[in-house]
């Protein structure tokens, strides 16, 4: 008797479930009982705000941003950025930046004449001028010693060490002193045995912030 009752109860429960399933749409059951089971939250990190000259962090208020790059292979041009303006990023091009009459000029040092032309450019720069320099390809072979000394007088510690195809970046000031804690110069030499760019040095860069009141 008990076994018969158990079987009848099970049969009735199965029939009731089948009856409900046949008459109630599956979407209704899913939406009613499991409304959020497939709605998983998508976590997205906020897009970082781009800083001037691609700095990781912004310069403090009242500062100019700069970034200078050199090296990384034959096809990669040197770049000079000041206050988010690219003054040099293509061969044989120079640009007058809008910020406080900054000038950028490309000197092809394939003849000694251009070494003297660069010296004239530096000497004619007025007091209170920032000078941002970078090499592409070879900036050493025909760079005369007097030109090196002139750059050394601006504060360069590496210009006398520059070699064939060395990557070199430098920032200097005429008529005022740059802060001691900023990046001013970096150099990387060509080495066919170790460089990944077939004798061209890997890319180097310097960047920083310069207080406006210094200029």
Describe the structure.
The chain has 215 residues and is of the alpha+beta class. The chain folds into two domains: 36 residues; 163 residues, no CATH class. The protein contains four helices and seven strands; from the N terminus they run H-H-E-E-E-H-E-H-E-E-E. The strands form two sheets. It has a four-stranded antiparallel beta sheet with strand order 3-2-1-7, with no helix packed on it. Strands 4-5-6 form a three-stranded antiparallel beta sheet, with no helix packed on it. It is flat and about 70 Å long. The N terminus is likely disordered.
Poorly predicted sequence stretches spanning 5 or more consecutive residues: 1-6, 91-102
What's the shape? flat
Number of strands: 7
Order of strands across the widest beta sheet? Answer: 3-2-1-7
Number of domains: 2
Number of helices: 4
Percent of residues in helices comes to 10-25%
Rg over alpha carbons: 34 Å
Q: CA-to-CA gap between the ends?
A: 104 Å
Strand content range: 15-25%
- Class computed from helices, strands and strand pairing: alpha+beta
**Major β-sheet profile:** 4 strands, antiparallel
Element order, helices and strands?
HHEEEHEHEEE
Average pLDDT score: 77
């Amino acid at each position: 008797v008990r076994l018969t009752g158990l079987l009848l109860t099970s049969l009735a429960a199965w029939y009731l479930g089948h009856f409900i399933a046949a008459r109630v749409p599956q979407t209704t059951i899913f939406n009613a009982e499991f409304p959020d089971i497939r709605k998983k939250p998508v976590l997205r990190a906020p897009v970082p705000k781009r800083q001037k000259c691609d700095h990781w962090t912004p310069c403090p208020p009242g500062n100019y941003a700069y970034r200078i790059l050199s090296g990384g292979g034959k096809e990669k041009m040197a770049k000079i950025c000041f206050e988010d303006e690219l003054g040099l990023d293509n061969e044989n091009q120079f640009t007058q930046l809008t910020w406080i009459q900054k000038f950028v000029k490309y000197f092809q040092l394939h003849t000694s004449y251009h070494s003297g032309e660069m010296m004239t450019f530096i000497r004619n720069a007025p007091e209170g001028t920032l000078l941002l320099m970078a090499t592409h390809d070879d900036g050493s072979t025909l760079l005369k010693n007097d030109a090196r000394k002139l750059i050394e007088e601006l504060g360069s510690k590496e210009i006398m060490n520059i070699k064939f195809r060395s990557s070199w970046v430098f920032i200097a000031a005429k008529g005022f002193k740059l802060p001691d804690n900023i990046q001013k110069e970096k150099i990387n030499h060509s080495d066919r045995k170790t460089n990944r760019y077939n004798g061209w040095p890997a890319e180097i860069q310097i960047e920083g912030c310069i207080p406006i009141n210094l200029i």
